[in-house]
Every structure is written in structure tokens, then in C-alpha cells.
Amino acid sequence: MTMWKDKKRKTQFAFNAEKVFLAGAQPLDAVFSYFQTTPAGISVEEVEERQSLYGKNEVEHEKKKNPVSTFIKTFINPFIGVLTILVIISFVLDVLLADPGEQDWTAIIIISVMVVCSAILRFRQEWKANMSSEALLKMVTNTCYVKRAGSHDEEISIAELVPGDIVMIAAGDMIPADIRIVEAKDLFVSQSSLTGESDPIEKCPVPKGEKYSKGSVVELDNICFMGSNVVSGSATGIVFATGNNTYLGTIAKGIIGHRAATAFDKGISKVSFLLIRFMLVMIPFVFLVNGLTKGDWLEAFIFAVSVAVGLTPEMLPMIVTANLSKGAVAMSKKKTIVKDLNAIQNFGAMNILCTDKTGTLTCDQIVLEKYINADGSSDNDKRILRHAYFNSFFQTGLKNLMDKAILSHVKDLDLEHLKDNYKKVDEIPFDFTRRRMSVVVEDKQGKRQIITKGAVEEMLEICSYAEFEGKVQPFMPELKQKAKEISEQMNKQGMRVIAVAQKSYLDKECNFCVKDENEMVLIGYLAFLDPPKQSAASAIRQLHEHGIEVKILSGDNDAVVRTIARQVGIETGNALTGPELAAMSSEEQHKAVRETTVFSKLTPIQKTQIISILQDQQNTVGFLGDGINDASALRQSDIGISVDSAVDIAKESADIILLEKDLMVLEDGVLEGRKTFGNITKYIKMTASSNFGNMFSVMAASAFLPFLPMLPIHLLIQNLLYDISQTTISFDRMDAEYLRKPRKWDASDLSRFMIFIGPISSVFDIVTYLVMWYVFDCNSLAHQTLFQSGWFIEGLLSQTLIVHMIRTRKIPFIQSCASWQVTGLTFLIMAIGIIIPFTPFGSSIGLGALPLSYFPWLFGTLLSYCILTQLVKNWYIRRFVKWL
Predict the structure, then answer these.
(1) How far apart are alpha carbons 326 and 679 in whole angstroms?
(2) Cα–Cα nearest to 332, from 728, 693, 660
(3) With the CA atoms of 399, 520, 379 and 392 taken in that order, what torsion angle do they form, in degrees rounded to the nearest 10?
(4) In whole angstroms, what separates CA 235 from the centre of its chain?
(5) Separation of alpha carbons 31 and 548, rounded Å
């Protein structure tokens, strides 16, 4: 029986636990034939065949939208539904029930155009947003190393994997598919993303006990599942399930499309329902008042429904989508990739940025500055360098920057031939608890030794001897103190120091483990220099100016972290180490975390703990990291920020990915996030206050006029033109003062804003009623066309001007101007509104030409409206210390 035998008839199959148990139960000597592969991998032809059968190695995700179905869905919302009802009513009244020759299609055509235009606008913005998101996500890829027959080991996108591929994984890698382990060395895998268990699980080729026959598949010792990540060690495995057929794929299918609502989403919904509640109150009121006063109940009903349409924020989803997508595209131009559009609002709200030190504040170009003996003397014969080189060269795990610096230095000295005299026997991979790694090598004479390098403090704990003054001596307390002083002296110069130790003449031949790292001989140190970036101090200063506090969360040595912090302008008076934090009570930790700016020697769990404490203190916390040890902190933070060069699991955990590891890039992204957030807030407050004001205007007109203040078709056209004028809000600029502070979503003052700002437009609507009634004698049914035309223009122009009044705390057009897109479109819509009553189209919908004497009154009304709005705005800001 083979793994693929009964699957070649179908391309999709569900996750099958029984087959996973069978995969785990195969003995090592039969595992390759069972999976129809070889130790060298499968051929290119077989890869192509299996790819056609099983597809890409991608779990269920938001499927690429079909343009036709997307366009149809734009019609499915309550506001379009209201308009559609109006079309049906108009068709029944004006066409079906009308006398022959008197059918009137005008209202039907206008409302239909309004529906289609609204749908096209929404479709265009949503489709652009979708295309932009897909293009941005394609810029970030995860890769893995694979063996394939007839070619060298290569790094490929995990999407290209097929069942039967031989993959190699090491610390920092994300498991690229469901795989059966065939070789492993101290492999520990975190399955927290699948099981919630935070402790890493050891994986090995041969399962312990009878786990492969019963229980949960995630407990299998020799199976690794897609989406989990390697904490330490290395392994080789055979891919046996990809894409939706993986364990992760079955989970993804169950949750696809169900995203948790953010505070921002809830705020948007709150605004929508607030306005819809006003609408529901208005419909019966306007209907009853107009029905009782005018006597035409059907006309009153249509008018009430039209008013309801004018009061609803039908463009809100499109405006929000347009702002977020435009913000994401603008951020991509500033080398910032947004994986989740909703993360933009958290970016703008962030007031604390926690960052690792390496590569963010420093150049991330570590160079080997010096290598010295354990007693501090110069390593003239390069013995320390030679041992460090063997350790870095022969390890198969994730080579960090220090390993690369050692290899580069040896290459520059043309000493790479030294490795030819040795062969690797075994290794003990790096992990973040021990903070060291070892290799076991043997020379041509059969001398076997273990070489270990790692963090100084952890290395001193496993050394029982040290080479001082050319002799191996017991590592007495005074020698240990001397060793610490040598290390600390280099730390104070801003260098990162690691220790090198060895143990020779080993009796053991294989299967070395952590227990063998004992009674070592300390032989020397390596000192690396990673200087601070020239831009770091300036970037931190600018982040502070924009209300963002920067805290360093590093696992590195305290002296090094403090030195770098001072060099980039971060206050080091409040510094804390991981062990000191661990010794505190919960209350002490909360106080310390609030006041401390520099943390060193932190474990990955402590980074997460610090972020959690800051969040408990009502902060919006961002975390910038790129390592394996940063994955948990990235998930915990309000906004996880990583870089394109980060390890796979860090990129998967992040919301935003920087294409440059630079705080200057981050500052640009923060400002773009605040600008995007500000533009959405503008629209919400404009819509809320304008609609609230219109409610009063319609109520007053309905109660006292002997005719409708505007026909339903007038309201609908006015609303359509106003909506079109709002579509450029996403292109608007924000005042510099607004961008200086973090912005959190807060809808608590929306009702207050509506109550104070909304009725201002009603005052001038009523003034317009009085002008049309007393000045232009529009006080009878015979003159309703002139009255309706006058209010149509004034209502549209005042609604459109509110865009400029609300968008800034300052005096519009004088102290702060909108972008040319906003200004151009609003004035174009105003011009169209003025022209319509003078056109045949205006005549066909019941509007008429206005006398020129109307326009001085219009100008005076609008100017007074702007002045009063500005005065109320100034009072509101003084009273409530808030505007947008």
C-alpha cells in the first residue's frame, strides 16, 4: 500500500487522522517507499505531476474575488434596498397605474442611475483595494530548503512544495507542510498556533511508546504540522500533506471569512446604527406630518423614504475601504507592507513602540572586532578564531549574524582550508534557554573534541577550567571574576561578547546531548561590533515628537544594550534586566514596566509579558522584531511589525512588514496610518452632523409648509451628488498638529458632535425657507417649484461646504486648504448643483430656473453659515479640547 494510491483519482481530499497515524507508524527503512520518494527527493517530472494533482501548498484563504460576483454584491446593502423599493413604487405609480400617454419614467431613470452609480463607485474602490492587497502580499514570501533528485539543495517558496518532497528545517523556520521526520537533532517544535500549548515539543524520527496508533495526531513524536515553528535543533522530513489537506488547512476551512471585529470595526458599526436609528424615527414622523398636512399619503410615504435615504450613510463602507486601501498603497511606497488593512488604525493609535536592538537601532552588519584569550591576552596564533570557525562552519542550524561574521572574517584571512583537517561527528543545536551551541569534531589523528560558543554568563556556568597564562587551571572564583571583568570591559565599549570553550579526548563517539556540555575549558572570547545607525537617534527623536515612546526589549547583555541606548538618545536611567524583572512581584512589575525604557537579558516569554503589562495600562503597543524569539511578542502586541528579511515565523506573526529595517521607515508608516485614520474620522463626523442637521430641516419644513419642501427625486439627486463629493476624502491631507499625537478610535463624543454641529445647517436651511417664502413669495402650491429649487441648491452647497469646515480645526481656505482632489470635486459638484435647475434635465424633475436676485441671498446665507460654524467650532474645541 502506498500513500498516494487511492488519491490520484481526486485533487481535493479532507484531513484524515488515520492516514496521519499510518504515516507516523511507518518504520524508517520503509518510509521512503511508502511516500513514493527517495532520500535524494523526487524528480522534476514527478513534482509537476503531483503539483497538478494536489495544487499549490496554500491553506484556505480569502479566495480571489470574481469581478462579476463582487459587482453584484455591491447592490446587496440596506441603502441600495431602500432605493430599489423607490424604483418599484415609482414604476407602479408612474407607469403601470398611469393613464395612457402620461407614463413618466423620469424618477425611475434617476433613481436607477443613482443605484448604479453608487454600486459602481463601491465596486471600483473595493476592487482596487482587493488588487492592492494582493499585490502587497505577493511582496512577502516564505521559503524552505528542499532536496530534489538531479539538483542541488535549493530554497523555494513553500507554495511550490508537493507530497513526497524532502525538506530540511532548522531553528527559526516555520514548518512548511505536514511532514514525517526521518532525521532530527535536538528538534524542538512549538505547536502553540495549533494546540495552544506554549511549551515546545521534542520531535524525533522514531516515536516513543505507542503514540502512533491512538490519541491525538498532534501528539505524534515524528510528525510536524504546517504552521508550527522550530524553536531549536534541525531535521529532515518528508512532506505528506500540503495546502488544505494539512491539519492547519482543515482548521482554516472552518474559520475562513470569520474575522474578529476590531474596536475600529465596532466603532464604524456604532456610527451606522446610530444614523439608522435616526432614520427609523424620521420615517414615521415625516410620513405622518406630510400625510396629515398635505393629504397625499402615497406622496408623503415616498418623501419619507427619500428622506430616510438622505439620512443614511450609504457610502460609509466604500469610504472606509477606499481610505484603508489607499493608506496601504501609500505606505507600500514608503517601504511598509500592510498585511491586514485594519492594522492601519492601530498603527496610527500606537503610543509605545517596543523594539529589539539588533538591526533596528544598530546597523545589523556585525563585524568580528577582536578575538582574545581567556586571560585577556591577544590570540596571536588565531587559536580562538580557529575554534569559533569550526563551531560556526560545522553547525547545521540557523546561522546567526555572529556566525556569518566569523565565517566572513576567516574568508578574508584566507584560512578556510583549516576545516579540511577535521570532520564533524555531531552537534548540539542552539536554543534560547541555554543560549549556546556545540559541535563535536575529529581531526585526522582521531582526536575528538567538543567546541562550544555562546553567551558569556551561560558559558561560565558550564566551565570547570580556564586557560590562563598558557596553562589550564581550575576555574576558581577569582579567575571567574577576572573573566567577567574582561567581558564587561568590552561590553562597555559597545561590543557584543561571546565565550568559546572546548573539551578534548572524548570517549563518547555519538549521540552527544546537552549533558555533555560540562567540565569545559574556557579558552577565549570573541567581540563583535554592531554600531548604531546614523539615522537611529534622529528617528527616535522624531518618534518622541509624534507622541511615541520607544522602549528597548533585548535579550542581549545589559552593558551593550545600555551603551547602544545612550548612543541613540534613549534614557538609560531606568534600565532593567530579565532576572531582575523575574524576581519582582506582580505589582512591582507593573510599576517597573511603566517607568523602564531599557530592558536587557530578556527571555521571549518576558518580552510578551512586558507588552501585556503595557496593554493593561491602556497603551496601544507596537513591537518591532525579526527573530524566532520575537514571534510570541509580535502576536501579543496591538501591532506586530517585522521586516522582509525576518525569519518565517516572525513574518507570519506580524501585521505590518517593513522592507527596510529602519525606524525612519517606521515613522513614515505611523504618519500615514494617522492620516488614513483621520480621513475616515472626517467622513464619519461630516456624515453624522450633516444628516442630523438635515433631520431638523425636514421636520420643520414638513410641519409648516403647505407643500413638500423638495420632491423625493430632488432629495435623491442631492444625496447622490453629495456622496460623489465625498469620494476624494481618502486623498485629503491632515493638519500637521493632528499627526503629532497617537489617535485611538473613540466614538464617545460623536453624539455630542452631532448635537452641537448638526443643527447649524438647519438654522440656515430655515433661513432659506424664510427667504423663499417672504422675499420670493413662494408661499403657495403654485410656487413650490421655485421654493424647491432654492432649497435644493442651498441644501447641496451647505452640505458640500461642511467637508471643508469639519476637515480642520483651523479656518478653511485661509489657514488650511484641502487637497486639490477634494477642493476640485466639491466645487465641481457645487457648480453642477447650481446649474441643474437651469437645464432641461432640471425641468424634467420639477426644478426651475431661479432669478439672479436669489444668488446674493445664497452667498450671504452660505458665508454666514461658514462664519457661525467656525465660531461654534472654536468654542467646541475650547470647551471639549477635541475636534476630529
Answers:
(1) 11
(2) 660
(3) -10
(4) 31
(5) 55
The pLDDT averaged over each successive group of 10 residues in the chain (884 residues) is 42 61 85 89 89 82 65 68 72 76 73 72 65 58 83 83 91 86 85 64 76 66 85 87 81 48 61 70 79 77 71 67 76 77 78 79 78 88 91 78 87 89 87 82 88 91 89 89 89 86 83 86 89 80 88 82 84 85 89 90 85 89 78 82 70 77 77 84 82 77 79 79 83 86 76 85 89 88 88 90 88 89 92 93 88 92 92 91 84
In angstroms, the CA 696 to CA 757 distance is 12
Asked about 178 being catalytic, the answer comes back as: no
Report the helix count and the strand count for the chain, using DSSP H and E: 31, 23
Name the H helices within 705-816: 712-726, 736-739, 750-770, 784-806
Phi, then psi, of 850 in degrees rounded to 5: -100, 150
Please pick, among 173, 186, 356, 530, the residue that the annotation labels catalytic: 356
Cα–Cα distance measured from residue 205 to residue 211, given in angstroms and rounded to the nearest whole number: 13
User: How far apart are the C-alpha atoms of 383 and 282, rounded to whole Å?
Assistant: 87
- In whole angstroms, give the CA distance from residue 664 to residue 537: 10
Residues 6+ apart with CB under 8 A from 130: 65, 70
| Collapsed DSSP state (helix, strand, coil) of residue 215 | coil
- 3-state SS, residue 400: coil
| Grid cell for residue 424 | 564533524
Q: Could you give the CA distance from residue 22 to residue 556 in angstroms, rounded to a whole number?
A: 44
All cell numbers assigned to 59: 491553506
Pair 374, 524: CB distance under 8 Å: yes
Q: Identify the H or E element spanning 233.
A: strand 229-241
Distances (CA, A) of 813 to 458, 495, 594, 707: 65, 55, 43, 38
Closest CA to 190 of 473, 510, 432: 432
